[in-house]
Design brief:
It contains four helices and nine strands. The chain is globular and about 55 Å long.
């Protein structure tokens, strides 16, 4: 069946390009025995997942996942997928099974049931559409890994939105942060926004100095 140009654009947006190992930093330092090969495999797992889901949604004449979910929910899904699937490739790390436990991934075999309410060993994971200004709910001593990406949003369904484009990872960075590398973002007395902590310039510099993946068209 021949697709119209718009249908072809939508179908192409369901099929992201895989990440390639040559775009990873072989000098990056990552805890718990995680390697760039492990990360490359886990990131391609996510790209395969989003392709599988979006092709099926396309066949059902439904919006792609990233164009349907609220942006914050989609970012959370990216982070949750990575923290759940990276341990499949990296035997030195496990998913933290404690509900809302911190950090997201723990050293394998360190804690009973791979469950910890709060600790400093392991890796905390975040997905973000932004290349800096990453946020969390608390200022903590933690090894933080951020997966930055580009994708459509629900707002793009409007006439002035961006055209359909495939999801892609832009950059991955990670480093050991301390409480001093975070600053709290306050809120007004009438605001309902959740109080958050943002990574400061010092934390950003630490993480960029230990970049892990960078898409070939992204300037450092």
């Amino acid at each position: 069946m021949t697709l119209t140009p718009q249908e072809q654009l939508q179908y192409d947006a369901c099929n992201p390009e895989p990440v390639r190992i040559e775009h990873f930093n072989s000098r990056a330092s990552i805890p718990c025995g995680v390697t760039i090969e492990h990360l490359c495999a886990a990131m391609n797992d996510f790209l395969g997942f989003i392709q599988m889901v979006n092709v099926r949604l396309y066949e059902n004449n439904t919006q792609r996942l990233e164009a349907m979910l609220m942006p914050a929910n989609f970012s959370s899904m990216v982070g949750e997928f990575m923290s759940a699937n990276l341990p499949k490739h990296s035997p030195g790390i496990v998913k933290n099974t404690y509900h809302n436990g911190h950090p997201d991934m723990l050293p394998a075999g360190r804690y009973p049931g791979d469950s910890l309410q709060h600790g400093t060993e392991g890796i905390e994971v975040k997905g973000s559409r932004y290349l800096r200004g990453w946020q969390g709910h608390n200022a903590e001593d933690t090894w933080l890994m951020v997966f930055m990406y580009d994708s459509n949003r629900p707002v793009d369904a409007g006439t002035k939105g961006r055209p359909a484009l495939p999801f892609r990872f832009l950059r991955v960075v990670g480093a050991q942060l301390t409480k001093a590398d975070w600053s709290f973002s306050g809120r007004s007395a009438t605001s309902r926004r959740t109080i958050t902590a943002s990574v400061t310039t010092s934390g950003y510099q630490k993480m960029m100095a230990n970049w892990i993946y960078n898409a070939p068209d992204q300037p450092m």
